[in-house]
Design a protein that fits this description.
The structure is a homodimer. Chain A is α/β, with parallel strands linked by helices. Chain A has 14 helices and 13 strands. Helix content of chain A is 42%, strand content 13%. Chains A, B: Belongs to the class-V pyridoxal-phosphate-dependent aminotransferase family.
Chain lengths: 417, 417
């Protein structure tokens, strides 16, 4: 078996991630390596922390990436605060709520779940009532469920958790960088973001932030005795049990990201370059303007999809602005449509998980993929593929409705979006 | 706080990692994103598995990267086979042996250690005797200790472990791609490599391989019940306890890397591009030729260092060919020398850990950093910096001795090395 030079096809990626990456980010990644303790590199680490604080809208001291994919960030936060037998309440409204429950159970938590129908979210009062009943140490919840395209309002839940001294951990993987995630204003204690979605940086890093309430629990865990004193010396006395994972131990990670710079892993150089450039682009665009852009393209996409004669899945009032779920028309092989979109048009959209597999398509409008030409290209291609599959659609209507949204917006904004 | 465009200084990196990366690898990383289930991407995943088998010199079915830095690979392998109370024997001869012990203890193993003086390694018979005494389920050992520059012979230990049905897990982070790591021939059951050293790919991935003996233990662990059936359905009955980590659960990871392609994480797209290109370059050079190249440059470096009047740390018979440890002359501030090398010459070398901190410098000859011009540049720069620090050296001798090694080699090989 011999291996050819590296070559890949160019795709239009309209899934809920991984999505396309700005060429400036790709270029940053191709910069030469720096040593992990090179002052030029630790300066980048510090800049990324400050940029993440701005992205998360927080004054938390700790905001840094975990070197792994999004679920690495989720596991790091949860495993650093969960001790055997801790009560964790998890409201589940889609596939990724199950992941939170799975991770908590693995680390020995006593997991309580409430579930609601896929395609909807919880009334905050329902969650609050359950907190009153269960009295958990931690509530863990997904902000944007890419599996169902729904978004859970968090502020009321956050306020109540703070009042009750419950830690609120939020999976904001699908929302960070694409719509509001107001960590401090919503009283979120620990939050995990994803890079490969609305931040539009390749998969492989998970930015997290957590406040002093979380840090207090982390530092109360028993310190690891073994090892060399210079690497592992810790001054704070401990009461809890040891954090099981070494790789995800936030007490060691913050000593590496903090001024002590105690050696832990070797920070993923090129991925950090990518994250820095991705965050610079986001903050340069401005968070508010960026969220408006995401909503504009979502509006154009939804207008086009509905004008074409297709229907959306889920409660529109609870719709995630970065993912649009479309019901697959009766009798249509959803996978055959996806394959034709990919092979003939080079456009990727997603299927879904579990009970929704084969029932809906999921279309992402995230980060750098969230562009006018991508929306219009997808609508025209999807129509052609559906007609090829003998689906009755309103020919030409989809792209016209989307165009109207853009033209109207141009008049208002005089903007080149 | 505003953030400037991305810019970094160009360094000559002569540490034990992260080291310089071939421009072709940097270029591959700047290729556009593919979706994780795009056939063009899963083809790359399969190619990388085959390339890793060749690199590890194994016919193991499983050889794939963990999405995280090297210690993520170590933790993934260990936590997937260690159950509460399992006996693990760890022969420690430097800093990274302690890391193995720390990880095993965190996961509830009963850890037995033997230690030898830093700068030396174990006589295999010593390890074998200890195995007879302890009767562990697992022996975990470092192949190349970057902290001391020593390399542990493994074949005898491997043979005995196989005979006794003990699992041998090896941290080959510092050796893979730079010197022989013969997984099958040496009877290694599970092996972890690092990308940021002799493979010369940025930090952020940890290639691992394991055989059916390890897989059997992994599959005997209790399957996670929670989650959606289509994602988590498993057919093999289980006897052991659940693997604690979700992110590092090899049973789920191999179902993602294998033909079932069950969704786990979102594979780190650009890092995988980098790994594929890095491996293609390595296999194109040829493993044997590559190892010879590493030894040549090590020889030139050592000749230069000694001719300059400096001495090496550790037992030369047990020297790691990819790391050279140099005793810091009495009365010299090692950190001041390192700083001047970096700031004036743009060259980075490393200090060491624990008892050796301030006593030795560590110079890497790894992967793409392991080039003639880097060795010669370092020798001349180091001499200049030492003279500046009033250290008595044999002026001009270091670079002359290194040159002799290269010229002689050119005559033999007629090669442009």
């Amino acid at each position: 078996m011999s291996f050819s030079r590296f070559e890949i096809p160019l795709r239009t990626i309209m899934t809920p991630g991984p999505v396309e990456v700005d060429p400036r980010v790709l270029q940053a990644m191709s910069s030469p390596i720096l040593g992990q303790f090179d002052p030029a590199f630790t300066a980048i680490m510090n800049e990324v922390m400050e940029m993440l604080r701005q992205l998360f809208r927080t004054s938390n001291r700790w905001a840094y990436p975990i070197d792994g994919t999004s679920r690495a960030g989720i596991e790091a936060l949860l495993c650093s605060i969960i001790e055997q037998g801790d009560k964790v309440l998890i409201p589940i409204y889609g596939r990724f709520g199950y992941l939170l429950a799975e991770i908590c159970e693995r680390y020995g938590a006593h997991v309580y779940t409430i579930e609601c129908e896929w395609g909807n979210v919880f009334d905050p009062k329902e969650v609050i009532n359950e907190i009153k009943k269960v009295r958990p140490k931690i509530v863990a919840i997904v902000h944007g469920e890419t599996s169902t395209g729904c978004m859970q309002p968090l502020k009321e839940i956050g306020e109540f958790c703070r009042e009750m001294d419950v830690l609120l951990v939020v999976d904001a993987v699908a929302t960070i960088g694409g719509t509001e995630v107001n960590v401090d204003e919503w009283y979120l204690d620990g939050v995990i973001g994803g890079t490969q979605k609305c931040i539009s940086v390749p998969s492989g890093m998970a930015p997290i932030t957590y406040n002093d309430r979380v840090e207090k629990v982390v530092l109360s865990r028993k310190k690891v005795e073994r090892g060399i004193q210079t690497d592992l010396d810790r001054s704070i006395p401990s009461t809890g049990k040891t954090i099981i994972s070494n790789y995800f131990d936030l007490s060691q990670l913050q000593d590496y990201w903090g001024p002590r710079r105690l050696n832990h892993h070797t920070e993923a150089t090129s991925m950090l370059y990518a994250l820095r450039e991705g965050l610079r682009i986001i903050l340069g665009e401005g968070l508010t303007k960026r969220f408006e852009r995401h909503r504009l393209h979502e509006r154009a996409l939804v207008a086009g999809i509905e004008a074409m004669g297709l229907s959306l899945f889920g409660d529109k009032k609870r719709k995630l602005p970065t993912v649009t779920c479309v019901n697959i028309p009766d009798g249509v092989d959803g996978e055959s449509v996806r394959r034709m979109l990919l092979h003939e048009f080079g456009i990727e959209i997603a299927s879904s998980f579990g009970p929704l597999h084969g029932k809906i398509w999921r279309i992402g409008t995230m980060g750098y993929s969230c562009r006018k030409e991508n929306i219009l290209r997808l609508l025209t291609a999807l129509e052609a593929v559906l007609v090829y599959h003998s689906v009755r659609v309103n020919r030409g209507e989809g792209v016209q409705e989307a165009l109207k949204v853009y033209v109207e917006q141009s008049k208002v904004m005089n903007a080149g979006w």
